[in-house]
Specification:
Helix content is 15%, strand content 38%. It is mainly beta. The protein folds into two domains: 158 residues, Jelly Rolls (Sandwich), CATH 2.60.120; 116 residues, Jelly Rolls, CATH 2.60.120. Strands 1, 14, 15, 17, 18, 19 and 20 form a seven-stranded antiparallel sheet that branches. The protein has a six-stranded antiparallel sheet with strand order 2-3-10-5-8-13. A six-stranded mixed sheet has the order 11-4-9-6-7-12, with no helix packed on it. β14 and β15 form a beta hairpin. The structure holds fe (ii) ion (FE2).
Length: 320
């Protein structure tokens, strides 16, 4: 039936008419548009750094930088249909760079950061500033800034490993994706910088944590925010928890990715227990109740989309 024909006289005809007009009756939806509380689509997960590192080492001689601009593996949340994201808005990855390698300069609208796990001798160049990356450091690549990375060591020296976290899945949802390679591969006239707003040093972090008050929310013993927030879409917290520490239980609409920089413990997420140690990455999707229990003095970096949820009035957190 079309609008030029006689009016629909049955509900069946009416719904057929609606369909031909690409409208749907609010009282007759195929799928609900509203529900009582968040649907838990993404699952909690822990990536084992030791295992992934071995896989990356195997990739080392097989994949060089002529085949892959960046030798990284993304941490794909194991839910049906997902091919990329770690949680709804964020993706994590492990990356390995070998002595002498250079990841050429590019820029993209998604924001990125890296948390250095192992190895010395790497540096990142962000918008003309060359910053050394050391173990435990957190370095930012804000939206649309040129960036390249390199390992300055000679062959035979240690490979370097880090965790990348980006808001690419959020940009996929919102759609303003832009990506560009630097015309000549690498930026020229680069300045060496040691202190930079994009570099949060491990040593500074330790000092800040030592001076910080006990965390009010009870989700760590101490918690220090890096930046305010670090980037518009991602907030970062360095958190310390001594052996024996048991956090409160937290349920929040913010998605989180935790990276273990030091120590060991376990996190119970919606009743499932995930053990962790150095380099492991834990995905805690929104609205999953979680609690940390620490067995060896630990430092974690929490990356979260809290600023997005807060800006939209969607941040809700329950602490038990
Ligand atoms: Fe990049």
């Amino acid at each position: 039936m079309t609008i030029n024909e006689a009016p629909a006289t049955s509900l069946e005809d009416l719904y057929e008419l609606f369909e031909s007009l690409n409208v749907e009756a609010g009282w007759h939806r195929k799928a609900p548009a509203l529900w009582a509380e968040p649907t838990k689509n993404f699952v909690p997960y822990r990536w084992n750094y030791t295992q992934v590192r071995e896989a990356l080492d195997a990739a080392g001689p097989l994949i060089d930088h002529s085949m892959a601009d960046r030798r990284n593996v993304t941490l794909t949340n194991p839910i049906p249909g997902n091919t990329y994201a770690t949680v709804r808005t964020l993706v994590g990855a492990y990356q390995m760079i070998r002595p002498g390698e250079i990841a050429l300069a590019h820029r993209h609208t998604p924001a990125a950061l890296r948390i250095i796990l192992e190895g010395e001798g790497t540096y990142t160049v962000v918008q003309g500033q060359r910053v050394e990356m050391r173990t435990g450091d957190v370095l930012l690549t804000p939206s649309w800034l040129w960036h390249s990375h390199a390992h300055s060591g000679n062959s035979g020296e240690e490979d370097c490993y880090w965790v990348d976290i980006l808001d690419v899945p959020l940009v996929h949802l919102l759609e303003p994706m832009f990506f560009e390679r630097y015309p000549d591969g690498l930026e020229k006239d680069v300045a060496n910088i040691d202190e930079s707003p994009i570099a949060f040093r491990w040593t500074d972090g330790l000092q800040q944590l030592a001076q910080a008050p006990i965390a009010e929310d009870g989700m760590a013993e101490k918690s220090v925010e890096l930046g305010d927030p670090a980037m518009p879409s991602i907030a970062l917290y360095r958190q310390s928890m001594p052996s024996g520490f048991i956090s409160r239980q937290c349920q929040t609409t913010a998605n989180s990715i935790f990276t273990v920089v030091q120590g060991e413990g376990e996190t119970e997420i919606d009743g499932e227990v995930f053990t962790w140690k150095l380099g492991d990455v834990i995905a805690i999707p929104m609205w999953r109740t979680y609690q940390h229990r620490v067995t060896q003095d630990a430092h974690l970096v929490r990356a979260t989309d809290e600023p997005v949820m807060r800006a939209l009035g969607l941040l809700r957190t329950k602490l038990v």
